[in-house]
Amino acid sequence: MLREQGITLHVKREDLLHPHISGNKYRKLRYNLEEAKDKRHNTLLTFGGAYSNHIAAVAAAGKEYGFRTIGIIRGEELSGKVTENPTLRFAEKQGMQFRFISRQDFRGKNSPEITARLQAEFGSFFLLPEGGTNALAVKGCEEILGPDDAAFDYICCPVGTGGTIAGLINSAKDCQQVLGFPALNGDFLTNDIRKFAKKDNWALQNGFHFGGYAKVNTELVHFINDFKQKTGIPLDPVYTGKMIYGILKLIKDGYFKNGSKILAIHTGGLQGIPGMNTVLKKKGLPLIR
Ligand SMILES: *Cc1c(COP(=O)(O)O)cnc(C)c1O
């Protein structure tokens, strides 16, 4: 299919940047860690769900760069289940301290009341938003593309909170088109991306979220396993698997002009596979290999 249309697809392996601070999370943390050091903070506090790549990355970064880390985790029911959860178990081993809160409190996590409560409990801290997106994170993601990437016509990436794609948009050439593949069903993403993106050379492909955030089906699992077998490249089920699935579908449907050169950013997230497999196993679905 690729050969017939003269299309090339390259994968930029950001997942290989660091063994534990995965892909785009490494980029997003870099300038935030510098800022936290400059401001003399010794504690990082952040938010996330049970299998969050961001939680794992912050825990590992804290250990490596000498910060105490606190993870505010969505779901009180998880408090007794840390050892069963590969992501939380890893984060705890890196030294992260957890506070498990209800889904309702989690929704209000950015309110002044909750911030005050957390400060009373943990003292002063450098706050990283859920998913890690802020202006410094976008600045870090602007460094994903280098001079060698200028020859591609399309830059593709998965989208969660939109920080990564905003960085790519800012550093892409005007003649390049940036395509985002949302991992969730969310109309708010376009506005979130516009907050940080300085150009208009981008679009979202909304048809590949497989029903929503962290939702997977047998077809996606088979696709991920197949792709790894054929190319040697492992994909995660929440972000990169859905993006690559989407790119190949668009190629098949003739979306890209003949001769297009496509670059897909592998943003990492592989730490989430064991956690997803515990969920798949409970449902009796095939596992990611
Ligand atoms: C967090 C994450 C994303 C989403 O990045 P945003 O900047 O939030 O859009 C994409 N891929 C992987 C593997 C991630 O862990």
From TrEMBL:
Keywords: Pyridoxal phosphate. SUPFAM superfamilies: Tryptophan synthase beta subunit-like PLP-dependent enzymes. It comes from the Bacteria. The modification N6-(pyridoxal phosphate)lysine is found at K25. Residues 4-268 form the Tryptophan synthase beta chain-like PALP domain. The active site is at S52 (nucleophile). Pfam families: PALP. One of its GO terms (molecular function) is D-cysteine desulfhydrase activity. InterPro entries: ACCD_DCysDesulf (IPR027278), TrpB-like_PALP (IPR001926), TrpB-like_PALP_sf (IPR036052). Its cofactor is pyridoxal 5'-phosphate. Belongs to the ACC deaminase/D-cysteine desulfhydrase family. This is 1-aminocyclopropane-1-carboxylate deaminase/D-cysteine desulfhydrase. It comes from Sinomicrobium weinanense.
